[in-house]
Design goal:
The protein contains 18 helices and twelve strands. It has 526 residues and is of the alpha/beta class.
Amino acid sequence: MTEPDEILFKNEPPEPTRSPASQAPVRGEPWKILIVDDEADVHSVTTYMIKGLDFLGRGFAFFHAYSGVEAREILREHQDMAVVLLDVVMETEDSGLRLVHYIREELNNHAVRIVLRTGQPGKAPAAKVIVEYDINDYKEKTELTLDKMLVTVISALRSYHFITTLENNRKGLKRIIDASSDIFERQSLHKLGSGVLNQLTSILQLQDDGICEYASGLTASNVEGQSVVLAATGTFSRYVDQPFTEVETVLMQTALSQAQSRQHGFFCEEGKCAWYFKSQTGSENFLYFEIARELDENDRDLLELFFTNVSLAYDNLFLHKGIEDTQKEIIFQIAETMECRSAETGSHVRRVAEYARMLALKYGLNEEEAEMLKLASTPHDLGKIGIPDSILNKPGPLTPEEYQIIKTHVYRGHDLLMHSSSPIIQAAAKIILQHHERWDGQGYPQGLRGEEIHIHGRIIGVADVFDALSNRRVYHEAWTWEEVFAHFREQRGRHFDPRLVDILLDNQEEFKAIWARYNALGVQFT
């Protein structure tokens, strides 16, 4: 006959124990207990009964108030009070009951356990008080023997510990939600890696514990075939942008090896934690951090949940990047096709893209939008694909009829891209439609004026004309730099956004440098 299966239960919290005076201090912050009574003997007897106890490895710290007023001051300062042993009748017959109202309603503290103790039960009948006031226990002073006092205090502490654990878990889950929202918004590997490290501080409440300076960590991912440290804190800060193989620590390698062998890719022991994730695209991602304290079961549960979301964020990022790279390739191929049709200089698209990026950054757009504008600018002449070569490459001035045909290229290009759901292609469609509008409203096709023209259209309008004037075209020779900048001074506030013209004029050498880098003809200006 086989033995019956053994049934295992989670360990219950240990019972309170007496700590001899010679014993080393118990671990953890002590439970805070407030005794509120106008009789000094009650304070002395109460502390004598329960001093030297510890519960869940934590001792007791006693606070004393001899009136409701004193108690209010202590409770305002110590929001983490665990138990209040409260007399009813002190400076007034209802001082204790007023204090209960103050704790629950004004301090909004619903965690602290309130034990009402009274020597005059007729002043506060139990049936009335327990219904009308948010108290947790009601005792007559005469019935509080040593054993009953211990039972009362430990029961109150159990309840307080349970409530605060639930509240901490709730806050932890909220931090997970907030952290996950943050990391899913990050659209680059560097930003994602940095965001994960930052959110760990919040999830583990390292700043609240005062040990943030002892937390160190790093994240690494495959970048162009090599694992590179993308973000780091503490002692690992010097490894940012370095190959991951340069980080030589036995503890880290051991922890990462353990993480790789785990089902969820997460390992944590003795304050050393590691996470490993291989994305659907095959990219390997690592995280390692260490802090100056052991993480409890709740911490580890929160981290495992967090890294599940981090894994999804990395997968989304890599998939998004693949789609974005494909879109970029398509857009550049379209732009290259247009250049092949034109007899104009071959690097026009690249130069305009670089001019646009610089104008965007100096105008105050962020790095991400500037990069998007750089890409979205490349097909700004897409609509010319429907313009006859005889007009597009005509060496002399256009007739009024031919000019009207040229102007249709903005609608042609816009109509080709307008139905795309891609933000980049949508931006490109708007640029195509608006880059020939003028600040004074005399442009085409809609005659928009001033800030009615989207900033992207205004930027490309400046970049496009700047490049057209500074390079040879079939219908004109390249202008000198002096002529180019004089034209923009003249057209400031007329053709072009005044602020963008000022940026161009204030940074002439930087724009010349872009021209020199990309100019295929090597024309030297005076």
